[in-house]
Amino acid sequence: AVILECGGKMHMQEREWEHACTSFFQSFKMYDEAGEPRRLACLQYLVLASMLQETSVDPFASQEARAYKGHPEIRAMTSLVESFQNDDIAQFERILKSHSHSLMSDSFIKAYIDDLRQTICTKVLVKVIGPYTRVSISHMASELNNIPETEVEALLVALILDGKIQGKIDQVQGVFIRQDQLVRHNKEAKKSEALGKWSLALEDVNLKVVKKIRADDVIESRSSKASKVTYN
Protein backbone atom coordinates (compact mmCIF):
# COMPACT_ATOMS: atom_id res chain seq x y z
CA ALA A 1 0.00 0.00 0.00
CA VAL A 2 2.84 2.38 0.85
CA ILE A 3 4.54 1.67 -2.48
CA LEU A 4 1.30 2.34 -4.36
CA GLU A 5 0.79 5.59 -2.45
CA CYS A 6 4.32 6.72 -3.30
CA GLY A 7 3.70 5.70 -6.91
CA GLY A 8 0.55 7.83 -6.94
CA LYS A 9 2.51 10.82 -5.66
CA MET A 10 5.14 10.31 -8.35
CA HIS A 11 2.40 10.26 -11.00
CA MET A 12 1.03 13.49 -9.54
CA GLN A 13 4.44 15.14 -9.87
CA GLU A 14 4.47 14.08 -13.53
CA ARG A 15 0.90 15.39 -13.88
CA GLU A 16 -0.28 11.91 -14.86
CA TRP A 17 -3.61 12.29 -13.10
CA GLU A 18 -5.26 9.12 -14.39
CA HIS A 19 -2.39 6.89 -13.30
CA ALA A 20 -2.33 8.70 -9.96
CA CYS A 21 -6.04 7.93 -9.46
CA THR A 22 -5.44 4.24 -10.12
CA SER A 23 -2.50 4.04 -7.71
CA PHE A 24 -4.26 5.96 -4.93
CA PHE A 25 -7.41 3.86 -5.25
CA GLN A 26 -5.47 0.60 -5.02
CA SER A 27 -3.48 1.95 -2.09
CA PHE A 28 -6.66 3.13 -0.34
CA LYS A 29 -8.28 -0.30 -0.71
CA MET A 30 -5.23 -2.05 0.73
CA TYR A 31 -5.05 0.37 3.66
CA ASP A 32 -8.79 -0.06 4.23
CA GLU A 33 -8.59 -3.85 4.22
CA ALA A 34 -5.77 -3.68 6.75
CA GLY A 35 -7.66 -1.17 8.91
CA GLU A 36 -4.87 1.40 8.55
CA PRO A 37 -5.69 5.04 9.48
CA ARG A 38 -3.65 6.08 6.43
CA ARG A 39 -6.62 5.09 4.26
CA LEU A 40 -8.31 8.48 4.88
CA ALA A 41 -5.35 10.50 3.61
CA CYS A 42 -5.04 8.24 0.58
CA LEU A 43 -8.75 8.63 -0.15
CA GLN A 44 -8.33 12.41 -0.11
CA TYR A 45 -5.45 12.08 -2.57
CA LEU A 46 -7.71 10.00 -4.80
CA VAL A 47 -10.37 12.73 -4.75
CA LEU A 48 -7.71 15.37 -5.44
CA ALA A 49 -6.34 13.45 -8.44
CA SER A 50 -9.84 12.82 -9.82
CA MET A 51 -10.58 16.57 -9.82
CA LEU A 52 -7.31 17.36 -11.57
CA GLN A 53 -8.09 14.67 -14.13
CA GLU A 54 -11.48 16.35 -14.74
CA THR A 55 -13.13 12.96 -14.83
CA SER A 56 -16.90 12.63 -14.73
CA VAL A 57 -16.53 9.54 -12.53
CA ASP A 58 -17.49 10.14 -8.91
CA PRO A 59 -14.45 9.28 -6.73
CA PHE A 60 -16.88 8.05 -4.08
CA ALA A 61 -18.68 5.75 -6.51
CA SER A 62 -16.98 2.59 -5.25
CA GLN A 63 -18.45 0.79 -2.27
CA GLU A 64 -15.21 1.13 -0.30
CA ALA A 65 -14.93 4.91 -0.80
CA ARG A 66 -18.65 5.60 -0.34
CA ALA A 67 -18.47 4.36 3.25
CA TYR A 68 -16.21 7.30 4.15
CA LYS A 69 -17.98 10.06 2.24
CA GLY A 70 -19.49 11.56 5.39
CA HIS A 71 -16.44 11.04 7.58
CA PRO A 72 -15.40 14.24 9.44
CA GLU A 73 -11.86 14.08 8.03
CA ILE A 74 -13.19 13.66 4.49
CA ARG A 75 -16.11 16.11 4.67
CA ALA A 76 -14.08 19.11 3.46
CA MET A 77 -12.84 17.22 0.40
CA THR A 78 -16.35 15.91 -0.25
CA SER A 79 -17.74 19.45 -0.30
CA LEU A 80 -14.85 20.60 -2.47
CA VAL A 81 -15.43 17.95 -5.12
CA GLU A 82 -19.16 18.74 -5.20
CA SER A 83 -18.52 22.42 -5.90
CA PHE A 84 -15.88 21.42 -8.45
CA GLN A 85 -18.27 19.12 -10.32
CA ASN A 86 -20.95 21.85 -10.28
CA ASP A 87 -18.48 24.44 -11.66
CA ASP A 88 -19.30 26.64 -8.66
CA ILE A 89 -16.14 28.72 -8.21
CA ALA A 90 -17.60 30.93 -5.48
CA GLN A 91 -18.56 27.90 -3.37
CA PHE A 92 -15.22 26.28 -4.16
CA GLU A 93 -13.35 29.29 -2.75
CA ARG A 94 -15.62 29.46 0.30
CA ILE A 95 -14.87 25.82 1.12
CA LEU A 96 -11.13 26.39 0.73
CA LYS A 97 -11.38 29.30 3.14
CA SER A 98 -13.67 27.69 5.72
CA HIS A 99 -11.76 24.38 5.70
CA SER A 100 -8.30 25.81 5.20
CA HIS A 101 -6.92 24.11 8.30
CA SER A 102 -8.01 20.58 7.37
CA LEU A 103 -7.05 20.99 3.71
CA MET A 104 -3.83 22.97 4.06
CA SER A 105 -2.49 20.96 6.99
CA ASP A 106 -1.60 18.21 4.52
CA SER A 107 1.42 19.50 2.59
CA PHE A 108 0.73 17.19 -0.34
CA ILE A 109 -2.81 18.52 -0.84
CA LYS A 110 -1.62 22.10 -0.27
CA ALA A 111 0.91 21.73 -3.10
CA TYR A 112 -1.92 21.16 -5.63
CA ILE A 113 -4.46 23.76 -4.51
CA ASP A 114 -3.31 26.25 -7.17
CA ASP A 115 -3.62 23.53 -9.82
CA LEU A 116 -7.15 22.84 -8.60
CA ARG A 117 -8.03 26.53 -8.84
CA GLN A 118 -6.69 26.73 -12.38
CA THR A 119 -8.53 23.56 -13.39
CA ILE A 120 -11.93 24.74 -12.17
CA CYS A 121 -11.34 28.18 -13.72
CA THR A 122 -10.54 26.67 -17.12
CA LYS A 123 -13.62 24.43 -16.87
CA VAL A 124 -15.87 27.39 -16.17
CA LEU A 125 -14.12 29.54 -18.78
CA VAL A 126 -14.79 27.01 -21.55
CA LYS A 127 -18.41 26.85 -20.39
CA VAL A 128 -18.76 30.66 -20.40
CA ILE A 129 -17.28 30.98 -23.90
CA GLY A 130 -19.41 28.13 -25.28
CA PRO A 131 -22.52 29.93 -26.61
CA TYR A 132 -20.73 33.08 -27.79
CA THR A 133 -18.52 34.09 -30.71
CA ARG A 134 -17.20 37.16 -28.88
CA VAL A 135 -16.85 37.45 -25.11
CA SER A 136 -15.46 40.39 -23.15
CA ILE A 137 -12.53 39.71 -20.84
CA SER A 138 -14.30 41.64 -18.07
CA HIS A 139 -17.37 39.38 -18.31
CA MET A 140 -15.22 36.27 -18.05
CA ALA A 141 -13.38 37.73 -15.05
CA SER A 142 -16.74 38.34 -13.38
CA GLU A 143 -17.87 34.76 -14.04
CA LEU A 144 -14.62 33.48 -12.54
CA ASN A 145 -15.34 35.03 -9.15
CA ASN A 146 -13.84 38.41 -10.13
CA ILE A 147 -10.28 37.28 -10.73
CA PRO A 148 -7.90 39.82 -12.39
CA GLU A 149 -8.33 40.19 -16.15
CA THR A 150 -4.64 39.40 -16.64
CA GLU A 151 -5.31 35.95 -15.14
CA VAL A 152 -8.22 35.46 -17.53
CA GLU A 153 -5.94 36.25 -20.47
CA ALA A 154 -3.32 33.80 -19.16
CA LEU A 155 -5.98 31.08 -18.86
CA LEU A 156 -7.20 31.81 -22.40
CA VAL A 157 -3.66 31.55 -23.77
CA ALA A 158 -3.19 28.19 -22.00
CA LEU A 159 -6.50 26.89 -23.39
CA ILE A 160 -5.58 28.01 -26.92
CA LEU A 161 -2.15 26.36 -26.70
CA ASP A 162 -3.74 23.15 -25.36
CA GLY A 163 -6.17 23.15 -28.28
CA LYS A 164 -9.22 23.28 -26.00
CA ILE A 165 -10.51 26.48 -27.62
CA GLN A 166 -9.76 28.19 -30.93
CA GLY A 167 -9.64 31.92 -31.37
CA LYS A 168 -7.64 34.99 -30.44
CA ILE A 169 -7.51 37.68 -27.78
CA ASP A 170 -8.12 41.24 -28.93
CA GLN A 171 -6.42 43.20 -26.17
CA VAL A 172 -7.38 46.55 -27.70
CA GLN A 173 -11.10 45.76 -27.57
CA GLY A 174 -10.73 43.58 -24.48
CA VAL A 175 -12.52 40.60 -26.03
CA PHE A 176 -11.93 36.99 -26.98
CA ILE A 177 -13.02 36.10 -30.53
CA ARG A 178 -13.74 32.47 -31.33
CA GLN A 179 -12.24 30.87 -34.44
CA ASP A 180 -15.53 30.52 -36.34
CA GLN A 181 -16.11 34.25 -35.87
CA LEU A 182 -12.58 34.94 -37.10
CA VAL A 183 -13.20 32.85 -40.23
CA ARG A 184 -16.44 34.73 -40.90
CA HIS A 185 -14.69 38.04 -40.31
CA ASN A 186 -11.84 37.09 -42.65
CA LYS A 187 -14.29 36.03 -45.37
CA GLU A 188 -16.13 39.33 -45.07
CA ALA A 189 -12.83 41.21 -45.14
CA LYS A 190 -11.72 39.34 -48.26
CA LYS A 191 -15.09 39.96 -49.90
CA SER A 192 -14.88 43.65 -49.06
CA GLU A 193 -11.32 43.76 -50.39
CA ALA A 194 -12.39 42.05 -53.63
CA LEU A 195 -15.28 44.48 -54.06
CA GLY A 196 -12.91 47.36 -53.46
CA LYS A 197 -10.50 46.09 -56.11
CA TRP A 198 -13.38 45.52 -58.52
CA SER A 199 -14.63 49.07 -57.90
CA LEU A 200 -11.17 50.50 -58.53
CA ALA A 201 -10.86 48.45 -61.71
CA LEU A 202 -14.22 49.75 -62.96
CA GLU A 203 -13.18 53.29 -62.14
CA ASP A 204 -9.92 52.79 -64.03
CA VAL A 205 -11.78 51.42 -67.06
CA ASN A 206 -14.22 54.31 -66.87
CA LEU A 207 -11.37 56.84 -66.84
CA LYS A 208 -9.74 55.15 -69.82
CA VAL A 209 -13.03 55.21 -71.73
CA VAL A 210 -13.54 58.90 -70.92
CA LYS A 211 -9.99 59.71 -72.03
CA LYS A 212 -10.51 57.72 -75.24
CA ILE A 213 -13.76 59.55 -75.99
CA ARG A 214 -12.13 62.91 -75.34
CA ALA A 215 -9.16 61.96 -77.50
CA ASP A 216 -11.49 60.91 -80.32
CA ASP A 217 -13.40 64.19 -79.98
CA VAL A 218 -10.15 66.15 -80.24
CA ILE A 219 -9.07 64.21 -83.32
CA GLU A 220 -12.48 64.67 -84.92
CA SER A 221 -12.43 68.38 -84.13
CA ARG A 222 -8.98 68.80 -85.64
CA SER A 223 -10.01 66.84 -88.73
CA SER A 224 -13.05 69.04 -89.15
CA LYS A 225 -10.97 72.21 -88.90
CA ALA A 226 -8.44 70.84 -91.36
CA SER A 227 -11.22 70.06 -93.84
CA LYS A 228 -12.54 73.61 -93.60
CA VAL A 229 -9.09 75.07 -94.24
CA THR A 230 -8.60 72.85 -97.29
CA TYR A 231 -12.03 73.77 -98.64
CA ASN A 232 -11.36 77.46 -98.30
From TrEMBL:
Gene3D superfamilies: 1.25.40.570. SUPFAM superfamilies: Winged helix' DNA-binding domain. It holds the Pfam family PCI. It comes from the Eukaryota. Residues 13-183 form the PCI domain. This is PCI domain-containing protein.
